[in-house]
Amino acid sequence: MKRILILHYHEIWLKGENKNYFLSRLRAAIRQTLEDLPVASLHSVSERLILTPGDDAALPQIVERLRRVFGLAYIAPAHEVPSALEPLAAEACAMMAEANPANFAVRVKIADSNYGMNSLEMERELGRRVLEHLRARDATVRVKLVNPEVTCQVEIVPGKALIYTQRVEGPGGLPAVTSGRLVALLSGGFDSSVAAYKMMRRGCHITFVHFFATPSPGRSSSAGVAEEIVRALTPYQFTSRLYRIPFDAIQRQIVAGAHQSFRVLLYRRLMARIAREIARTERALGMVTGDNVSQVASQTLHNLAALDQGIGLPVYRPLAGDDKSEILRWARQIGTYKISCEPFEDCCPRFMPRAPAIFARAQELDEAEGRLNIDALIRMGLEGAACTEYKFERGEVTQRENSPRRFENLRREKNSMEGQPAAHNAASNLSA
Q1: Buried residues in 309-336 as b, exposed as e (16+ CB within 10 A)
Q2: Do both 151 and 249 map to the same domain?
Q3: For 172-228, what is each residue's pLDDT tens digit?
Q4: 402 and 331 housed in the same domain
Q5: Which burial class, exposed, middle or buried, applies to 400 when counting CB atoms under 10 A from its CB (0-12, 13-18, 19+)?
């Protein structure tokens, strides 16, 4: 008897002639995830991947790592036996006796066109033998085809049979880094980290941008929380960058120069402008936010439309229609919930207006920005930015401070424009 892991993928089946590309990226992600663990082989068999561990003792750790590999629907610790009925039935009886269920079912998939029985015939025969074996110890055991306590799963492929009674759900989606790059606006809260994860799950590689303020005495900065969130999410995509942008001085200028009802919307527009510049240096194809429609005043449909006007990049909002309970469930699942529960001081609630605008129009925000030096505020944000790179390898996340060359070139370019007459007013700059 040989112990193996069956790695099932679902969505990749639908990729037609592009399937081999996605499969190659999935295999690469599996190997990178397990590079420090004993793996004897990884190969494809009849639309599934079969992983053979180099040491059975490492199986639990291997399974735990694989739970973070995008593209895997589920992982099944299985036994590999000859596909002939007698050895297959003997192993099925042994595994079910170990599980010791009060009721059970047998499910069979046959991916061998030369096998002598069909799935229904095999289910009946194996079910009969397993029932006889279990009833020899407990006469009350019965077959239950709907919601059984334990299901004996049998997958017959050319030359062998794979048997298992348990499986571990994978994250699904598409393999990491197969869909292009995006920049995510990351706060320390629940929503933005879940939004980033959902886009990562669709094969997007995320660069994170976090805006922070100097905390009040006795409070912690949101920057530390953002760093922990990025560390938690990096194993899903292997590498990450986090840009940390001080926002205090920018907020003060907005407070001094704009009507209070538009403050939060102008904060967010400036964040989007700065993130847009970073997205260009990262060659990203859009931005991701954790917006949830009408959750707060700045997230009404009118305000979101006004914020997006003229940004020049697609803005993805994967949580737009989610309930808060759904978002919290996701946060627990991906490992960011406890991090976001830590006390910290965010920058957006500072200088909150008594009556924030909930039906703002793009023209109103353009007029409010006309009283501000937008180019100078963008330069201020970029000049104060710090960048940390994260890498997941050999089971650990490492980090180092490093500012990419393209970003340094951007800062030099912006600084060289300082003091020059503004080429565009606030409204025209939106569509630049």
Answers
A1: bebebebbbbbbebeeeebbebbeebbb
A2: no
A3: 999 999 999 999 999 999 999 999 999 999 999 999 999 998 876 667 789 999 999
A4: yes
A5: exposed
